[in-house]
Amino acid sequence: MAAKDSILTPELLKILKIFGLASVVLVLILSFFDTHRASNSGEDLTFRISDSARLFFLNLKAINYEREVRSDAGMTLFRHGGFQDERKEADLHLMIILNPNQGEAYLYLKPVKLDFPFSIQKSGEDSSILTLVDGNKFDHLRQVEALKPWIENGEELELVIKNQKIPLWQSKSEKEALKSTLEDYFRLLQDE
User: Of the four, 28, 50, 100, 130, which is 20 to 30 A from 8 by CA?
Assistant: First the structure.
């Protein structure tokens, strides 16, 4: 029978001590600087806003918005001042809703002088159509995210109501209000 060689030689023990100690120290150091932690609560963080983002919005950006406090719902609605109220035809306003009780922010496409469902269509040769329906906060966010590339590309858009086409967001102030509202909303949601 062959003699048993010791697996744990003194040299191997030295190596294990060095690398073992180094890995423990590395884990401890990284645990102090890791700001991203796993969320094991099962809570949906899609609409969650940080206190610093909310304060930034309220202190610096909210001056451009008309504020409507809905005490019955415990929320505050913000509509950019660039959207025109004096239009006699149907229109669509984009609003930011802050829910301080939940620490969340939502986007809402508010129809003016029209009811859901309706469609938005690109003007011109590529007449892609997006149908908008009333729904919950997830539906509105999904619809705005579908509209966002059209808005960012400066597409001319039209409301389609019963085969009638109404130009949408034509003035410079409305286009700026729309872009500003989207920028402010997605800045609110950024994780810090």
Answer: 28
Q: What is the mean pLDDT of the chain?
A: 80
Nearest to 168 by CA among 158, 179, 154: 158
Residue 111 has pLDDT above 80, yes or no: yes
Is residue 138 within 8 A of residue 179, CB to CB? The reply is no
d(CA 93, CA 5): 80
Measure CA of the first residue to CA of the last residue in the chain; give whole Å: 65
Instruction: Tell me which H or E stretch contains 130.
Output: strand 129-132
Amino acid, res. 133: V
Whether 4 has a pLDDT exceeding 80, the answer reads no
Question: Does 111 sit behind a cis peptide bond, omega within 30 degrees of 0 on the bond before it?
Answer: no
Q: Which two tokens stand for residue 163?
A: 């085969």
What does residue 179 show for φ and ψ, rounded to 5 degrees?
A: -65, -40
Q: What is the DSSP letter of 32?
A: H
In angstroms, the CA 62 to CA 128 distance is 33
Cα(187)–Cα(55) distance, rounded to whole angstroms? 12
Q: Which two tokens stand for residue 122?
A: 């690109």
